[in-house]
Amino acid sequence: MASQAKAASEVPSVSSIHSHRDFDGRRAPILTVAQGAAFSLEAKSLVASPTDEVPQTYEKVVIPITGPVAIDGAAPGDTLRIDVLDITIAPFGAMVTLPGYGAFKPELATSARVLRINEGMIQFAPDVSLPVSPMVGKLGVGLASDPPRSNTVGSHGGNMDNTALRVGASLLLPVSVAGAAVYAGDLHARQADGEACLTGLEVSGLITLQCRVVNFRVDQPVLIDEHSVMTLGHGDSFEAAASLALESMISLLRQAYPWSREQAAMFLSISGDVRVCQLVNPRVGAKVVVPREYLPLPSLSGQP
User: Fold this and answer.
1) 222-292 belongs to which homologous superfamily?
2) Which pTM was predicted?
């Protein structure tokens, strides 16, 4: 757990009974918190116990999100900074493959596995163990019309499946509705970039967040961690998603430096890594990663 997270008894929590399959900003909030106040969201997963049968249809594999939580004072047009304070995961998780889903050709057959987690290690096979690396698959804000489903990604955040969205990271999102309507879920004990088979190691658990409005305009998701600033893109193909992430990073660079678009593009060609988030959902996710030393973002001086 993150050391900065408050004791669970001090943090208001939203149960996973308040789970949904879209980022609807019109729902009444389950909880309203002040800016900077910590709160927790309970996250559902594919199985509630290690003996449960794992779902084996795509509709049942789509993991819901918990919320919404309103952030006092957040208004349309604002930028909301969401800090991930803590992630607690169950000692087991599930993985699935389904025909027609995933990035493999020829297609994978239907299969499912439940994996145990012991002392921070995932027991993948008798002779193969991997360390846990907990992350949040879905985190976003609500939209007032045509709310996107929980299995897709967009300017609202959503199913980003960005492996950097872990404890200590901050996500910047444009606010569309009063209170922002924050939702989260889809915890992974571990996931690789791409999420190639369709799922990471999907686990239930608890996510602790804090949010505040910042004086910095973004139109697409921006993620900041200890080492990097990342712009996140989405599209019907990896090329489209990467193009959007690149244009978003050019915009950030030109806010920080008096550069032409061409000079910013040259900088990215020598310092900006273009990477995949996920290749397997209705919209693909990509990220452009720049070392944080080149993008200090001074108006976010309170960031971790």
Assistant:
1) Acetamidase/Formamidase-like domains (3.10.28.20)
2) 0.94
